[in-house]
Design goal:
A 5-stranded mixed beta barrel has the order 1-2-3-5-4. Strands 8-7-6-9-10 form a 5-stranded antiparallel β-sheet. The chain is rod-shaped, with a radius of gyration of 52 Å. It has 6 domains: 94 residues, OB fold (Dihydrolipoamide Acetyltransferase, E2P) (Beta Barrel), CATH 2.40.50; 69 residues, Nucleic acid-binding proteins (OB fold (Dihydrolipoamide Acetyltransferase, E2P)); 74 residues, Beta Barrel (OB fold (Dihydrolipoamide Acetyltransferase, E2P)); 80 residues, OB fold (Dihydrolipoamide Acetyltransferase, E2P) (Beta Barrel); 84 residues, Nucleic acid-binding proteins (OB fold (Dihydrolipoamide Acetyltransferase, E2P)); 67 residues, OB fold (Dihydrolipoamide Acetyltransferase, E2P), CATH 2.40.50. The protein is 14% helix and 40% strand. It contains 6 helices and 30 strands. By secondary structure, the chain is mainly beta.
Length: 527
């Protein structure tokens, strides 16, 4: 029996038939609008060519394969899910879409997540009106009120970050997805709160984050529960405002000082984590020692000096100069100045150190008695005039006081300014030196003889004598009766037109040696 000879043309017709049959079978199985699996066969500048096993290959714009950084993520031979949009377009090409396939699959996933009240991860891609745009496979909207536990003022800081979200609204038909991050944070915070409350006790140390800064302290998130770190518990040293040490978002380690279980209020401390610098301060700063510090604050009554972290001393205004009357510390010191001082007193319990600035220099009062012995004469300018006397500058160091009772033997004036003005050069006698109470007494009348012996012997009350007006002051007219003897003619007793140089007969109206008053009146003509 002879074998059957098959013509080549018959074999070719059979293979072509098989191919056409297979393609027609696939065409029947694959429909437009379906998601199918394909393989990347070529990548060009503009397109990615994908074979889904159909009679022709499909082109997908290369843009659909680029990530956020613009990099093409497709690789030849890689499998990819695509949507068959059109089996054959006008150019005979099959139209595919990776983005639409991803979107359809994403919507299925989102629907499942929403039904199960699950969480989904996404990347914040842009700031939009009223909130943020988030990429979760599709673009979703995150309202500003749902971004964080508290309303966020700066939404830009969230862009580019990856977070987990809850789906609070989903409308596939309209392509609308609304997310919330706040819901997840609240859940996490509540879980942390329960864990924190189990361990919260006085004396415990926690790591926290500064949530808010106020004038009186900062609020610290300890993990689901907030505590107050008061400004007085921040540092052993001086601080004017909490913002000098902290900003919102700072990480901080604090100790629990007090915890009220009922109100769940927590008081925190930072300085308590460091040794108290006032312990053993008397040894480090003994009385009489010389110290160096920095002026950190000025008050009307003195200057505060930082000696070391947490330890300050006060230079009282009375301890700034031996001789000058300082009206305000700013006349001597400025904030930031480095200054040497002497420790005068240490109060460990009250946490106070008294310092002296003038004690750095020798006390000029201690040398005053040697320099100006009692009875010696000095010259100086009138520095100041008061109701009770005048102050005389003694070599620019110390002012001597001439009391009103030591200005003149006879009080023929109403006020010291009747006799002197600032800047007048005067000569005086040293009467008394008291270094302990810082008093230096001078006298002017002691330069002349006391006229009262002559007055008592020659001028009794009612006696008459010629007189001449030699001066006028606020109390009246000074009338000279003879060389060295002068009396006061009150303004009320002076005739109209009386002036310096007027001469008339006077009568002694009153002599008072105790008050040193010698009062005169114009004598009436004898009948």
């Amino acid at each position: 029996m002879c074998p059957v000879q098959i013509e080549p043309s018959s074999v070719q017709k059979s293979s072509e038939f098989a191919r056409l049959f297979e393609e027609s079978t696939k065409a029947a199985a694959v429909k437009e609008g379906q998601i199918v699996k394909g393989r990347v066969v070529r990548i060009s500048r503009d397109y990615v060519v994908v074979d889904i096993g159909f009679k022709s290959e499909g082109q997908i714009p290369v843009e659909e394969f680029k990530n956020a950084r613009g990099e093409v993520t497709a690789n030849v031979g890689a499998e990819v899910n695509v949507l068959l949009e059109t089996v054959e377009n006008e150019s005979g090409m099959m139209v595919l879409s990776k983005e639409r396939a991803d979107a359809m699959r994403t919507w299925d996933i989102l629907s499942e997540v929403a039904e199960k009240d699950g969480e989904i991860e996404g990347t914040v891609v842009a700031k939009v009106k009223g909130g943020l745009s988030v990429d979760i496979g599709v673009r979703a909207f995150l309202p500003g009120s749902q971004v964080d536990l508290r309303p966020a003022r700066n939404l830009d800081k969230y862009v580019g970050n990856v977070y987990k979200f809850k789906i609070i609204k989903l409308n596939k038909r309209r392509g609308n997805v609304v997310l919330s991050r706040k819901v997840i944070l609240e859940k996490e915070r509540e879980a942390m709160r329960e864990a924190t409350l189990q361990n919260l006790a006085e004396g415990q140390v926690f790591d926290g984050i500064v949530k808010n800064v106020t004038d009186y302290g900062v609020f610290v998130d300890l993990g689901g529960i907030d505590g107050l770190l008061h400004v007085t518990d921040m540092t052993w040293g001086r601080i004017n405002h909490p913002s000098e040490m902290f900003s919102v978002g700072d990480e901080i380690r604090v100790a629990v000082l007090k915890f009220d279980q009922q109100s769940q209020k927590v008081s925190l401390g930072l300085k308590q984590l460091q040794p108290d610098p006032w312990v053993d301060v008397e040894r480090r700063f003994p009385v009489g020692s010389r110290v160096t510090g920095k002026v950190v604050s000025l008050a009307d009554y003195g200057a505060f000096i930082a000696l070391e972290d947490g330890v300050e001393g006060l230079i009282h205004i009375s301890e700034m100069s031996w001789t000058k009357k300082i009206k305000h510390p700013s006349k001597v010191l400025n904030v930031g100045d480095s200054v040497d001082a002497i420790v005068l007193d240490v109060d460990t319990e009250g946490k106070r150190i008294s310092l002296g600035l003038k004690q750095i220099e020798p006390n000029p009062w201690e040398r005053l008695e040697e320099k100006y012995p009692i009875g010696s004469k000095i010259r100086g300018a009138v520095r100041n005039i008061a109701d009770f006397g005048i102050f005389v500058d003694v070599n620019g160091e110390i002012d001597g006081l001439v009391h009103i009772s030591d200005l003149s033997w006879v009080q023929n004036f109403g006020h010291p300014s009747d006799l002197f003005k600032k800047g007048d050069e005067v000569e005086a006698v040293v009467l008394h030196v008291d270094p302990q109470n810082e008093r230096f007494s001078l006298g002017l009348k002691q330069l002349a003889d006391d006229p009262w012996d002559q007055i008592n012997s020659s001028y009794n009350e009612g006696s008459r004598a010629p007189g001449k007006v030699i001066a006028k002051n606020t109390a009246g007219f000074v009338v000279q009766l003879e060389e060295g003897v002068e009396g006061l003619l009150p303004l009320t007793d002076a005739p109209e037109g009386t002036d310096v140089g007027s001469e008339f007969e006077i009568v002694v109206k009153q002599t008072n040696p105790r008050e040193r008053r010698f009062t005169l009146a114009v004598a009436k003509p004898k009948e």
